[in-house]
Amino acid sequence: MPEFEIQHITRYIYDSPVRDSANQIILFPIKDEYQDVLKQEIIVTGHPIIDSHIDYYGNEVGSFTYSDPHSLLVINSKILVSTRHRPYPVNDIFPAQQWEDLKPLQHMVPYIDFLRQEYFEGFEELKELVDKLKGHDDIPYQVALRFCEYVYKNFNYIKGVTTVETTLDEIWKLKAGVCQDFAHILTEMLRMIKVPARYVSGYICTDKNGMRGEGATHAWTEAYIPDYGWLGLDPTNNIIANENHVRLAVGRNFMDCSPVKGVYKGSSGHRLEVAVTFGDDGLLLHKEEVADTLAPQPVPAVNTVVKNSYQRHMELLQQQQQQQQQ
């Protein structure tokens, strides 16, 4: 039964003093039979009171407001979590019966949101691919593993080419992104074959060098398997999420699980730094890009046109093509 000591620091540095910073945090690990929270401490600049509640998806959500003028806001979460290995699904149930067992879930409240598909321009193309990958004699567990492997092998892991606002269509065209993008694509693929799928945020804690997502917040997918329950699938690493994955929250997508988001009054200029460390030695320190979380937004919003990463990527390709033609 492994234990993980995790420190997650979110730091907002503002160009000039701001005030009335209202934030929502989802930094409280899930508590169930496979995960226990042994200790947690959250310290916020100014020591505001953190109110908490349980949201629709069962996540613990905290909220606070720091009213005094400030040029720096730090949210420091320290947790000690123990996890247990979860047995894998078995293949001793006839495939036809398992697919039949999934059909009633389309009308059951706990699963409806996790079956709702998001239409995008590449929907039909992805649907055609999904139908080809789904074998006629395969059980949902086998199909889910095959989908996970497809995303891992066909999407490039590149930091900075996407943001939290990048659409499915942009991810599908780029065939690249980070863990949240991989999770969104896999989730959509599973929902296309009527397998409930949900987005998971958390951490991956492992001493295997080169594991994607180490030293940072991580994201993966959970698929609902008949006679088993929720199975974690990590398409970023093509593995089943188990005792080395610490879960913070589940939801339909990233927006339901964002670790930190909020608003404030003041200048729009700010810099965001996120660092996640594991253990006492401070190894695996990682500063995330602003794209990996929802930064607090100024109120009122500034009327500025911002190009997303996909637009910048396409413009760069066009410039390169023009240079080659000259």
Automatic annotation (TrEMBL):
All residue ranges annotated as the Transglutaminase-like domain in the record: 171-237
Domain of life: Bacteria
SUPFAM superfamilies: Cysteine proteinases
UniProt protein name: Transglutaminase family protein
Organism: Mucilaginibacter corticis
